[in-house]
Amino acid sequence: MTADGLRAAVDALRLVDHHVHGAMVGDVEGAAFEAGFSESPWPPPVGTTHLDSQLGFAVRRWCAPVLDLHPNVDVTAYVARRRDLGAPEVTRRLLAASGVGLFLVDTGCRAEQTLGPEEMAATSGAAASEIVRLESVAEEVTASGVDATRFADRFASTLDERARYAAALKSVIAYRHGLDFDPEPPSAAEVRRAAGQWLRRQETGEPRLTDPVLLRHLLWAGLERGLPLQFHVGYGDPDLTLHRCDPSLMTDFLRLVQDRHVPVMLLHGYPYHRTAGYLAHVFPHVYFDVGLAVNYTGARSRAVVAESLEVAPFGKVLFSSDAWGPAELHYLGAVLWRRAMASVLGEWVEAGEWSSADAVRVVKMVGAGNAKRVYRLEESP
Ligand SMILES: [Zn+2]
Fold first, then answer.
1. Is 145 helix (H, G, I), strand (E, B) or coil?
2. Structural domain tally of the chain?
3. What are 95-130's pLDDT values in tens digits?
4. CA 272 → CA 6, 125, 234, 297, 319, distances in Å?
5. Which of 46, 67, 181, 306 has its Cα between 20 and 30 A from that of 364?
6. Is 37 a domain residue?
7. Which ranges of the chain does DSSP label H, i.e. alpha helix?
8. Does 89 fall in a domain?
9. Is the pLDDT of residue 60 over 50?
10. Residue 190 Cα to ligand 1 middle (Å)
11. Distance between Cα 131 and ligand 1 center (Å)
12. Looking at the domain assignment, is residue 268 inside a domain?
């Protein structure tokens, strides 16, 4: 098989995006549009835009042709074309062009601003399932009124309901505390006490769950459901403290939960994706992806994808975009990953290190097969 043959096989693959958020509902323009391409809530340096970045350049290079524009068109022309086409058409084009056959959609992050799983499916022509975020369920439970003694039971029954049709659960303990949490499950008395303190804090206008005892309780309650458990790891917005999002900090937790046979999915991970790859290598229940990092590294994503294929067995690496908001991110996640895989694996085939049949097999595993196996997805997208 030639390099062109490998590229064609990569391009033809219907992907499973195993961790993604909804595309933005409605038009986004100006600063709001540009803000969609940065994890920083603050403005860029004077005289520049958030699109003066690897991600911004990748948008202009790869998304412009989907909107009938020349590659590398300037930002003003791009935004004008986006406005002319209208947000629904732009979103439809970009989602369909991604070649994703199934989106697993995390609905826990500003869901009211983005398409839900059914809307993602209707807009893209692909299938979609939900990933339920543990902390959001806990916040829903307290918002609907509960006292500290009944919090654990109410959380359990609400989670049962919410998780009935879910593909996975997700934890953002990395954001809310750090991955250096006590690995042991808290006692019922500790949970009651912590729930009481949280409810009192809520009365003073602090609805966010940041209590480490409760965050741990959510993890252990989540494990009971037997669904794959996704963790935010590494890079993200400045709500997190990066060095506390190193996944090796949760090694004792990984050891403790190993006999539960619940797949633990370490998401995006940059710059700790090599650590995540090591953990996926040694622990049978650990998997990882480099989703968010592929988009944010743009023309350098080839290096990140190559690093994801170092020590981790190929059955432990998954594709994701971790896109949230502008559908450019959903499309780019797929296009940059496909380009990187074709380039990196093509080089190894060219050098005689890999057979082309193995290269195609690994592309199918990482792009779709591993997710279908781990999430027990009956229907192939
Ligand atoms: Zn995410």
1. coil
2. 1
3. 999 999 999 999 988 888 899 999 999 999 999 999
4. 29, 34, 6, 14, 16
5. 67
6. no
7. 3-12, 30-35, 54-58, 75-85, 87-97, 117-124, 134-143, 151-163, 173-176, 188-203, 212-224, 251-257, 273-282, 291-297, 301-308, 327-350, 356-364, 370-374
8. no
9. yes
10. 30
11. 10
12. yes
Ligand 1 center to 114 CA (angstroms): 13
The CATH number linked to 128 is 3.20.20.140
For ligand 1, the distance from its centroid to the CA atom of residue 5, given in whole angstroms, is 33
Task: Give the long-range contacts of residues 45-51, CB within 8 A, separation 24 or more.
Answer: 49/75, 51/75
pLDDT digits (tens, 9 = 90+) for 244-274: 999 999 999 999 999 999 999 999 889 999 9
323 CA to middle of ligand 1, Å?
Answer: 7
Cα-based distances in Å from 336 to 27, 62, 228, 290, 362: 25, 9, 26, 12, 17
Range of the structural domain that residue 165 is part of: 102-322+370-374
- The least confident of 24-28, 129-133, 226-230 is 24-28
Looking at residue 110, its pLDDT comes to: 83
- Does 196 reside within a domain? yes
Residue 214: C-alpha distances to residues 19, 101, 156, 203, 299 (Å): 24, 36, 13, 17, 41
Taking the centre of ligand 1 as the mean of its atom positions, its distance from the CA of residue 129, in whole angstroms, is 14
- Ligand 1 centroid to residue 19 C-alpha, Å: 6
